[in-house]
Design goal:
Blueprint lengths: L8 H13 L2 H26 L5 H13 L1 H7 L9
Length: 84
């Protein structure tokens, strides 16, 4: 098992035990919450790096960051997605 470098092994084991005791639905809820949090952090990072971006630019840059420039081009073929 690969252990994380930023967590004490005992804390990591406690976390795994807690996750194992949760229902699958609760684990899925946590995963979705974490995904939303990561997207919010990424969106805020884009805003801070590019204060002139419109909300639409930020959304397009986020798509480019998460899925790549090619995917962004497929979604918006006539618009270059801004750099994240």
């Amino acid at each position: 098992m690969l252990l994380p470098h930023d967590t004490h092994p005992a804390a990591y084991e406690a976390q795994l035990r807690a996750y194992r005791q949760m229902t699958p639905n609760r684990r899925a809820e946590i995963a979705l919450e974490l995904s939303d949090t990561v997207r919010s952090i990424a969106r805020e990072g884009i805003r801070q790096r590019h204060p002139g971006y419109t909300p639409q630019d930020v959304s397009r840059a986020l798509v480019r960051l998460l899925y790549g420039a090619e995917a962004a081009r497929r979604v918006w073929p006539n618009i270059d997605a801004p750099v994240p």
